[in-house]
Amino acid sequence: RYWAFTYGFIQIWDMEKAVCTKTVDAHTSSGVLCLHQVGGYLVTGATDTTVKLWEYPSCKPLRYVVVNCFL
Predict the structure, then answer these.
(1) Distance from C-alpha of 51 to C-alpha of 13, rounded to nearest angstrom
(2) Residue 2 pLDDT > 70, yes or no?
(3) Is residue 2 within 8 Å of 11, Cβ to Cβ?
(4) Over the stretch 12-67, which tens digit does the pLDDT of each residue have?
(5) d(Cα 50, Cα 32) in Å, to the nearest integer?
(6) How far apart, in whole angstroms, are the C-alpha atoms of residue 43 and residue 55?
(7) Residue 34 contacts by C-beta under 8 Å, 6 or more apart in sequence?
């Protein structure tokens, strides 16, 4: 599997078939900065200041937290 992010969307790709298998409207900003998949979960973070936990592979949203930090 491969993940791509564009304009707040996450796309999950099947690289063997070269097809997008799922598109998820994940964040309100265009910059998804972090993506990590472990077991049945997917974690994303973006410039909209949210970190989100998703069920994987259904991509059902489970939880989110707003992180206000300045770098």
Answers:
(1) 22
(2) no
(3) no
(4) 888 899 998 988 888 887 776 667 888 899 888 888 888 999 998 898 999 999 98
(5) 10
(6) 9
(7) 43, 44, 45, 46, 51
